[in-house]
Design brief:
A hairpin with a 2-residue loop joins strand 9 and strand 10 (113-117). With 326 residues, this protein is of the alpha+beta class. It contains 5 helices and 18 strands. Bound molecules: FE2/S2 (inorganic) cluster and fe (ii) ion.
Length: 326
Amino acid sequence: MLVDHPALCDHWYVVAEGADLAGGPIPVGLLGRAYVVWRAPSGEVVAAPDRCPHRESPLSLGTVTGGCLICPYHGWTFGDAGRCVEVPSSGPGRPVPPAAHLPVIHAQERYGLVWLCPGTPVGTIPTITAENDRAYRRINSGVDRWATSATRMTDNFLDISHFPYVHAGTFGIEANREVPKIELEQLDDDFYGYRYEVEVGNEKGATASGQVGAVVHRRMTTGFHLPFTVLSTIHYETGLDHLILLCSTPIDDVTSYFTFVIWRNDDFSVPAEEVIAFDRAIGAEDKAMLERVGGVLPLDQTATVSVQSDKPSVEWRRRLAALLAG
Ligand code: FES
Ligand SMILES: [Fe+2]
C-alpha cells in the first residue's frame, strides 16, 4: 500500500478549506486513517484521530460550542490543542484523566486551506509569494473527492501531452500535440519543473484569460513540491498572471482529495466563481479520465513506458520513490 509508507506521514496534505469548519467538526481521511478537524477556542485548527478516548465514538459526529468539541456520546469536551476540559459525569471542576487528552496531529491553515501532517514535519507547505502581494487575489475552489490515486493525479498535473485529447473540450488544440523538448530546473525555492510556451484554445476561456480570440499565447511554468503538490503559473502577453496550485491528498491508495487555488493579478472585477469556472471544467476533464484508469501509478519506472514529454513526471516519480525509501 502506498499510504502505508511511514515517510509520507512527515509531509503536509490539504484535507479541507478553513471555511468548511464554520459549521462544526468535520471528518477527514488521510493516508488510510480517519481524523476529526475543528476550530478551537483560540481560532487555531485542531486535528486528532476521529475516536473519542472514552468509548471510541467518532468525534466528528459531535458539536462545537464556544470552540470546544463535545463528544456526542457522553459529552466529554475538548478545547485548545485537544485538551479534555470537562468530563460531565465527574462533576464540575474535577480533574480529567491524563489519557483523556486527544493525541492531536500537526495542523495549519494556509491559503484558505487546512493542511495536516500526521507525523513529524520534515516536508514544508510551499510558499506562494503572490499570497502576500496586494496586486493578486486568491480564489479558493472547494475540496473535491476523486476516485483515483494521488500519484496518478500528480503525474497528470505535470503532463502537458494530454492537452489535445483530455482537454479538447476546454483549451486543448491540435497544435499542442507535439511537446517541445523539456529542460528541468529549480523554478523557485519550493518547486522543481520546467518552463514552456504554448498556444491554447480560448473560445471557452475568455473570462479566465481576459482576452478574446480563438487562441491565446501563454508562457508557463509547471513544477512539483513533494509529495503531491503542483504549481502551474500562466503568464499572458497582456501582463495577466494566473497561478494554479493543485493539491492532491491520498485519503487511501485509490481515493484522494483534490483542490485548486488560483492567484491572479486581474482588476478583481469579474466574480471569483466566473473566473474559475474554466479551471473547474478543466479539472472535471482530468477527473473523468483518471477515474477510468484505476490503481496506483507504479513507482517502478520500468512498469510503464515513458517518453521525453514525460520527463517531469519521471523525475517526480524518481524523487517520490527516494522519499518513500527514506
Ligand atoms: S465516547 Fe466520547 S464521551 Fe464517551
Ligand atoms: Fe489535465
